[in-house]
Amino acid sequence: MILLAVLFLCFISSYSASVKGHTTGLSLNNDRLYKLTYSTEVFLDRDKGKLQDSVGYRISSNVNVVLLWRNPDGDDDQLIQITMKDVNVENVNQQRGEKNIFKGKSPPSIIRKGNLKALQRPVLLHLIHGKVKEFYSYQNEPVAIENIKRGLASLFQTQLSSGTTSEVDISGDCKVTYQAHQDKVTKTKALDSCKIERSGFTTPNQVLGVTSKATSVTTYKIEDSFVVAVLAEETHAFGLNSLQTIAGKIVSKQKLELRTTEEGPRLMPGKQVAAVIKAVDSKYVALPIVGQVFQSECKGCLSLSEHWQATRNHLQPDSLSKAEAVRSFLAFIQHLRTAKKEEILQILKAESKEVLPQLVDAVTSAQTPDSLDAILDFLDFKSDSSVILQERFLYACGFASHPNEELLRVLISKFKGSFGSDDIRETVMIIIGALVRKLCQNEDCKLKAVVEAKKLILRGLEKAEKKEDTMMYLLALKNALLAEGIPLLLKYAEAGEGPISHLATTALQRFDVAFITDEVKKTLNRIYHQNRKVHEKTVRTTAAAIILNNNPSYMEVKNILLSIGELPNEMNKYMLSIVQDILRFEMPASKMVRRVLKEMVAHNYDRFSKSGSSSAYTGYMARSPHSAATYSLDILYSGSGILRRSNLNIFQCLGKAHLHSSQVVIEAQGLEALIAATPDEGEENLDSYAGMSAILFDVQLRPVTFFNGYGDLMSKMLSASSDPISVVKGLILLIDHSQELQLQSGLKANMEVQGGLAIDISGAMEFSLWYRESKTRVRNRVALVITGDITVDSSFVKVGLEVNAETEAAMEFISTVQFSQYPFLVCMQMDKDGAPFRQFETKYERLSTGRGYVSRRRKERLVAGSEFPLHQENSEMCKVVFAPQPESNSSSWF
Is Zinc-finger one of the keywords UniProt gives this record (predicted)? Predict the structure, then answer.
């Protein structure tokens, strides 16, 4: 009895989860002609735009469907014929009036006679149990036209019972879920599961990335095992994570309704469907029902050379700080991506030396096989006459948005060859490290070239005999962030010479918290507390910073706090500022620090009243509910008042993702002899040196030297100018997202988001014995342009939405020290100039014949300049001792 009850419940459940009258798919009645109306329409607008403000179009037609053949051995094996008739194209926005691009145009003039004839040729659909077995059409029809027929035919694929399965239709091989209830079936297609060959790429870092979302729901109303009505709606939306105004949305709808049925042709006899198809028309061929790729014909388009002539004037060196330069850069990259090697090489060879660096930026950023071949043929790494161009090529490779194995393989091959410049050889290895990291982030760590590059870095570091080679491989490892390289970094951090030890510790500083294990921290503690050897202040303070930023234990924090007071004066002040900054900014270690400070032995006046000028400060540059931009500045001086290190960092955070936007470090050492001062412990034998190092968008660049050695110092002091030295200058493709979409209506859509940056980071260090004053200056000028572009193309009409944002900004940091007395006077200034922020929106509809409609909107506002606090203490000494800087908005002496 219980077993019968269970079987009864299963039967009832199965019945209620399927459409009455059938349990598989659609079934047509014999000898009947089904007459239906069909329409597909597409809307484009901003993510939250109104449909009446959208651009788009509607394709409508009558549709005749007949059953040609049914397998005599099974009712669910059917061959149906689908024919579109009376095709029309119209605007989806009825308020367009005289601006309606379709007004007064007949379907043959819009679609063209040949296309219209092909569109109205019937297709055959072989269905087994409601699923498409084969799609038959005529060969050599225009792909775009055939895709529209595929979109209509795919609506006839359904099942009349609930469940989840995989189906192949115009969207590809997709996971679909059916919900059946009485006379209604709802099909939900997981578009992100669809397997279909389409080009596309994206930026892996979430801060610079694009989030896209797609949905597809089709509702069937069924009577007598056939459709009375079908309503499908598909949406694709995208948004730039870091700027929500760069967003857009595609809404595609299909509607199929049964008007009437009437007497139709009789069934064709036969047991084999192939014979039946041949009898209908021998010209029919089986084609994939999956949508096929097509490119719209470009009439009157300019050649690459003509595009370059229109672009080059905007890329002159004096124009690079303007948004127009970046707009031109991004637009030209799009043209380069469709160009052949010979066209690109011709432009490179003909260009003047003033604009050539910018052209190299663009060609490298295009990231196509042809552009890579062209630039490699153009550059001669064995010559030292084109060092600037070689460096621009290498940095563009390092910033590549979607590097591939071939690019890494090329650089490995170049590194094994000969060079005309040692600096270029070093830069090649540094960029190899950056590419290894990017490829591993894309889960391509096991590629042959990546494995080879890892071995090259690690073995090179193990076997390096020259100091220069050791520094080169450490910089590469600092970019690659290989977990297997951590033991080597610890070795050089603890046992290496000053600069090598410092570089190794800064490389460790870039690893995520998961890699800073207890074993790593044991070594770092030994370095900070000098258990085995004396270390420079820069090495010790970096080791302490790593410990405090990576889940420090109670005893680690306590020992660091207890050391304050036993350190050299300026290091005491620096470590005290680090601890106070952790507490003020509520960093992860702040809770542990507060626990330790409850002990009087760690928290007392003697320890927390140390004087000095070194400092550390972290603050917000911008903050919103979903993102933040932070800056941090720490400055360490020697006991004699000469700058030892200044470190300016800018991070962008989005949820749990972050991007190290920039770091500029200025270092100096061995200058005490110039003012007859005593060097600090562990720094007695250091050579005179000053230089600058930078990280830009998570890529460590090759450091720049101001002077190296006493002779070089004196030479440059006698011939010194206040002109800054450029650390990095050029055009960077920062955001790069491309997505080709196959809409289930048969139309083709593209989503493109590009972000470009023109950047110039320069730095200078001035030193005056007469005035006993030193000054460091870092200036960062940028122009940023972000473009978002959505298009939907049917080959005879194209609609699009473009959303753009741009700004031009500058930020400057100046640190001035007077060391004629102790405690010496220090003034630090950091300002961001006021910047215009412009936004543009363009919507358009355009026929292939040339007629079009365009709507443009623009918004502009001025973002006020900002002054950023750089120290926890306030004082008026700057105003008393020095005249205020006229170009500065913020200055504080302490």
Answer: no
Mean pLDDT of 78-86: 96
Cβ neighbors of 5 (< 8 A, separation 6 or more) are: none
CB 765 within 8 A of CB 706: yes
The CA distance from 771 to 818, in Å, is 8
Question: Under the phi-then-psi rule, with left for phi > 0, alpha for psi from -120 to 50, and beta for the rest, what region is 361?
Answer: alpha
Angstrom distance (rounded) from CA 263 to CA 66: 10
Please give the Cα distance from 181 to 192 (Å, whole number). 26
Q: Which two tokens stand for residue 704?
A: 């720049």
CA 240 – CA 327 distance, rounded (Å) = 18
For residues 846 and 816, what is the distance between their CA atoms, to the nearest angstrom? 59
Q: Report the DSSP beta bridge partners of residue 659.
A: 652
Q: 309 is written with which tokens?
A: 């002539």
Of 234, 238, 204, 243, the residue nearest 216 (C-alpha): 234
Q: What is the DSSP string of 318-341?
A: GGTTSHHHHHHHHHHHHHHTT--H
The residue written with tokens 């077993």 in the block is 3
The Cβ of residue 769 has, within 10 Å, a number of other Cβ atoms equal to 10
CA dihedral 884, 885, 889, 893 (to 10 degrees): -50
Give me 12's structure tokens.
């009832």
| Per-residue pLDDT reduced to its tens digit, 413-444 | 999 999 999 999 999 999 999 999 999 998 89
Cα angle for residues 715, 716, 721 (degrees, 5° grid): 145
Q: For residue 23, what is the DSSP state?
A: S
Phi and psi at 382, nearest 5°, equal: -85, -5
For CA atoms 473, 479, 480, 485, the dihedral sign is positive
Provide the β-strand partners of residue 668: 690
3-state class (DSSP) for residue 267: coil
Which pTM value belongs to this model? Answer: 0.88
3-state class (DSSP) for residue 878: helix
Residue 130: other Cβ atoms inside 10 A: 21
8 Å CB contact between 268 and 69: yes
Distance between CA atoms of 413 and 854, rounded to whole angstroms? 50
Secondary structure letter of residue 58 according to DSSP:
E
pLDDT in tens, 335-345: 999 999 999 99
* Residue 840 to residue 788: CA distance in whole angstroms: 10
* Cβ-Cβ contacts under 8 Å for 548 (sequence gap 6 or more): 557, 560, 578, 579, 582, 589, 593
The residue with tokens 């918004």 is: 859
Task: Tell me the mean pLDDT in the region 733-762.
Answer: 93
The upper half-sphere exposure of residue 739, i.e. CA atoms within 13 Å in the direction of its Cβ, equals 23
